[in-house]
Amino acid sequence: MNTNLHTITDQNGRPLSFLMTAGQVSDHTGASALLGNLPAAQWMLGNRGYDADCLAATVIFWL
Fold first, then answer.
1. Cα 42 to Cα 36: distance, rounded to the nearest angstrom
2. Taking a C-beta distance cutoff of 8 angstroms, is the pair 18, 5 a contact?
3. Residue range of the domain that includes 52
4. Any idea where the Transposase IS4-like domain is (predicted)?
5. Which of 8, 9, 22, 32 is 20 to 30 Å apart from 44, CA to CA?
6. Domain total in the chain
């Protein structure tokens, strides 16, 4: 069994909030659970596991 750690950090990489999920859980699920914790930002960085139209639309809304 493995795990994924989904994290929101500040501009210096310090964690603001995080969520641990089982390894077989989609990255979209973990990201969706953290969207309410997004701080105001000018840019965002994420790996390709978070590349989905539904997440992009939500993130753009928050920015």
1. 17
2. yes
3. 3-62
4. 3-54
5. 22
6. 1
